[in-house]
Every structure is written in C-alpha cells, then in structure tokens.
Here is the input.
Amino acid sequence: MNEEPLRQRIGVYGGTFDPIHNGHLKVAEAISNAFALDRMLFVVSAIPPHKRKQAIGSPFHRLAMAALATAHSPQMFVSTIELESPSRPYTIETLERLRTELQPVRLLFVMGADSFKDVTSWYEYERILSEYDVIVATRPGYRNDENIAANLAPQLQTRVVDLRGGGSPFGAGLTGENIESPHIYLTDYVEVDVSATGIREAVAQGRSVGDLVPPPVASYIEKYKLYRNS
Here is the structure.
C-alpha cells in the first residue's frame, strides 16, 4: 500500500522576514498550488547562523508582521519553533524537529536562489539536500542561469529537477520510487523583484511601501516606527 497520500505535504519557508512582503506571499501561494501543499509554514528565525554579523530586527515585530500577513490565508501558518528554541538552531535541526513533531509528514523546504547559491556553506547542507525536498524560488535574473546548481557535488546534482518555465512537479517525468525520494526543484513561478532590504531602505527614506507589503504590515511598520534608522 502506498502511504504517500496519508502524509501531509507541508512547505517550510524559513527566513528573517524583516519584514515579510508581497514577494514572500506570492512565492508561497504559487508553490503551495504547484506542489499541492496542505500547509505552508513561515518559520521566523531568530538570527540565522549565516547572518549573525548583520543587524536583524526584533523577532517579536517580525513574528507579528508575519502573523498579520498570513492571518486570512487558511493554508499559511507562522511557526515559532526557532524563536522558542533555547539555542539558535541550524536549518537541519529545525527540519528534524518539525518532521518529528508533525509526522507523518513530507516536508518541502523553500529557499531563495541567493541562499541556494551559498548553501554549500550551511551546516550539514548535504543532509538538507538529500533528506528533504528542496524548492528553490528563483528571482528575476536567475531564469536562464543554467549553472545555479553547479556548485553541488555530482550526487546532489542528480537530484535537481528544473521546473523553470512553469513546469509542474507532477509532470516532470518522475515515477515510482524516483518520485518518492527527495529532490531539488528549481522554480520560477513568481518573478517579483522586491526585497526586504529595499523595503527597509524605502521606509528609512520616508517613501511609501504600501504596494510592497500587505496593508496590515504597512500599518504595523508605521505604528511602531520600524526601520526609520535603517
């Protein structure tokens, strides 16, 4: 008996979300639809290991904005698993804990192209790429970059499934045991050129960000005077 239908398919979208913006939400919605996800978890990080030398906004504000942005979506949830951790967990530790707590489940880890290009510097990155499905959401400029996975070891490159151009994971020629094993999916479902850095800079310069973040998030940023000194 195939047990796959009994397992929930849950996306894990990790990041600082400083702040969460429309690009994050459009990517999450598009991937949820394409991969038939039951849920998408936005895992708000405390201070990611690879960003510990950078100034990161208060985790309480970042969590609040993520909750406001996803409040009206029945499939999108915010996870506090990393904020509640007594340590600063690595991604592989967060994924292991989620898999244990949510089983039976199939986790699909979502990451941006910028992070993917640096993934070989992550702690136990080979386990992430071999034990879990990974969905890479490319931004404008990466669409025709055929070498985006060139930094991976040959055994990991065999797991890459290029869905750029609007391909479906269910029509990618994966069958039998092959479709059951984890893969690295390259996608370009959404090309929204918006970044959290750009939003913080815009706020600091007194410009409106109402078209870049959900209205409740824009109101929250204004109310608590966030990013004024970014």
